[in-house]
Structures are given as structure tokens and as C-alpha cells.
Amino acid sequence: MDLPRKRLLLAVCVVTVIAIFGLWLIARRAPMITRLLPDGSTLTLKQVSYETPYRIRTGDRWQDYLGATLPTEWARKLGARFAVVGTETNATTVYLEWQNSPTSYNLRATAFDEHGCEFGLTSPYTVSVGGGRDAVVFEFQEFPRNAKTVGIRVFLQQPGSIWSKLTEFPVANPAWRSVPSWQGESLPITKSVDGVEFTLRSVRTGITSRTWPPTPPVSGEYRGAWFDFSFTEKGKPAADWQLVGIGGISDGCGNKLKCGSSSSSGNPGEVQIVVDGGLCDQATVWKVDAQFARSRDFPVEDLWTIQSVPVPAPGALTSMDVVTNRHGTELHFRGIHGAGSKAGRNLPGRPACAQVVFTNLSQTIQFQFVSAVDDRGRDVMGSSSSDDYDHYYALKLPADSRTVDFTFVITKRINVEYLVQPSRLSPAEVGKFRKRLGYGESFR
User: Do 95 and 146 belong together in one domain?
Assistant: First the structure.
């Protein structure tokens, strides 16, 4: 047999072996669980992985089947159609296939543990894979890492933006690990920093996030946690301090929840705040990273004052570049934009606004707009908005204002950590809780 024919035969053998191996891998990815949904469609659990990128074919040609198992360069040369998933770090990927899915839909999913605790919420990546099937891929950054079996709960959005449970799947945890439990501290927990005592008085779950006053959990919505803090200095309420935010909630298993929008209420020297709380609250101690900063009576070295800035005509600009550097952050005051300018497009009514630019503001620094006073001593300070690195501060300028004096503050945040075991409220307890906070028991 001549050399060219030998090479051709060898190439055919290699391709055949690869094809057989690819088909074997595809067979190994056979559906694990299939759910028949009320509309007659089916949702099938295809694969669960952890930090393992893989390809999902997005066509039904033989090249697409073979390309799902070939090296990426070969698959692309073959013209295989596929999508790469599972690329998120420290995340579990769940791949579902929806046969005869609706033409339009919105999904969410959460992972839950044996206590019924839901871990965050995530939206899917979806792509058609041919034959009336959609690949639905969820990547979970938060999940019960110390449980051998994890529940996956899928929600479908209904008219009126209401979420209903579509189905559930039990899955083997691909990232299971046994983790020693943290030891929580008894509430209230007080941390003293520079003579100020920051006390975490209570942590309660069993509520919906991003809602004030507290309400019971709602299907398909973020689970929340309620925190009650107080600040004292020399035994008296420290009214000059504020809670800037919750930097994160984490557990000993490696989950870290970035807290979303919140609502708060409180008297001077105290604050009550609701944030995202989608972690286990039954058997896991939480590490709470809270951030505090002064709200008034600032040190002189933290204040930045810019005086007698001329007020421009509507649509015009008082252009300037006043620069300062505080706590390692460089800030530029760029002037005042007149009413109706493009700079104020994100502010209601497009008012006149001041512009400050900073590009390297650390998470340990608090920047605040303290005051804006015109040449007649009137307070003209309004709301604010951000556009990339540009920060705009609305001004409520009377027609006869000629100049404005500005004061900003750049001060350090104080980061305080607490180790705490939350307690969960039942729906009935939420009602009583609301009443104790000064609201009605009814939440409908």
C-alpha cells in the first residue's frame, strides 16, 4: 500500500475513533431527569458541573454532534455549531433542555438545601439547539456547598410580573465539601472602633428582600435579611455616624452574597436595614461585613470646598478643573452644567448640575456631597446620578443665583465584621414584627 493511501486510511480510522468516542460521551450525557410540565412541554436535566467549561451543540447536523467532543480548533474548522458554558469561577452550572418551550418566556432559578433555605437567584443563558428544543443554562454562584444533594427550583414569570414555581430537580452536588462550622457570637454583638461602639442587635430572615417594611417571602423573589444596628459614643447615641451599607454576607462554605438594594429606617444612632439574604439561615453562621462612615461633624482635613463657582446660562457650562487628592483618591471638579444640558439627562427635569470625576475611588473611601449654597446663602443642593466615571449633582437654582459654594467630603469608611446566627421569622411572626416596628400587621 502506497504512503498516501496509508495516510488516508489512518485519517479515516482516527476520525472514526473520535466519532465513536464522541457518541459515547454524548450517551453518557443522557437525560438524568425529565419533568412533564402543565402545558405539555418537557424540561430535562442534562448536566451538572462545577468550574468545568463545556460545549453545548446548537444544531442537529453530524458536524454539530461531533464538534461537541472534538478539540475546539478542530470543531471550528469543521463548522460545528456550539455554545461554551460553565466558565464562571466558583460556580455550579446546571444545563436543562426545554422541549416545545413557549415562544417567549422569562425564567429564574434558585438552589435550596434540606432546610428549604434558598440561595440567591439567577437568570439563565438560553439558546436554541434545534428540533424545537432550547438549552437553558443556570450558573449558581451561591448554593449549598456542604450538602451532597442540592435542590434546583425553577420559576416562570407570569402576567403581572408574578413568579410561579415551574418545577424542581434534585441534583448531586459536584462541589461537595465538608467545611467546619464557624462559631457565632451571641447577640447583641458590639465592636468598638476609635471610641465608637457599633452594635449589631438583631438579624432576622424569612422576609422578602428590597422591601420596606418587611413582608414574608414571595415565590421567585429574592430572600431578604433584616439587620438592626445601633451606634454609641461615650454612652450616648452617635448621631454623627451612618451605616453606609452591607459589603457582603458570607458563610464558612465559600458562599459570598453581594447585598443588593436596601431600605432602611431608624432614629439617630440606630438603623434598620433590609438587604439580600439568600444563604442558609438554619445551620450556618454568617459573616456580615458592615461599613460605617461619618455623616456630619467631619474632620477639617476630609472636607473639600470650592467657592464662588459662576452659574452658567441654561445649556451652557462653567468649565473648570479643580483637583484634589484625599486618602489616595484623585478627584476633579469640572464645573456647573446649565439646566437642560446633556450632562443632566439622567436627573429628573434635567436641572443644572455640578460634575465631579473620580476613577479610582476605593471601597474603603466614602465620598459625599455635603452642601451647595448660592451667593444669597440659600441651600441649592439636589439629587445625584452617575454616568460611568462622571458623577452629577443636581442643583435647585433660583433665577437670581449668581455663584455657588460647594462642599464635598472624602472620608474613610470603617469596616466591621460580625459572626452571627440569624433567626427566621414565620409569616405570622412577620406580621407581629411589622406591628412592633410601627406598621400594620397586614402585608397584602
Answer: yes
| Rounded Cα distance, 386 and 18, in Å | 54
CA distance 340 to 353: 10
My answer on whether 273 and 317 are in the same domain is: no
The total number of structural domains in the chain stands at 3
The answer to whether residues 256 and 330 belong to one domain is no
Assigned domain for 124 exists: yes
CA atoms in the 13 A half-sphere facing the CB of 175:
20
Q: What is the pLDDT of residues 252-292, one digit of tens each?
A: 888 988 776 566 666 888 888 888 888 999 878 999 999 99
Which structural domain range is residue 360 located in? 300-413
Residues 279 and 425 reside in one and the same domain: yes
pLDDT interval class at 388 (50, 70, 90): low
What is the pLDDT of the chain when averaged over all its residues? 86
Answer yes or no: do 148 and 46 share one domain. Answer: yes
Give the pLDDT confidence score for residue 296 in this predicted structure: 85
Residue 26 phi, psi (nearest 5): -60, -40
Tell which of 143, 172, 201 closes a domain.
Answer: 172
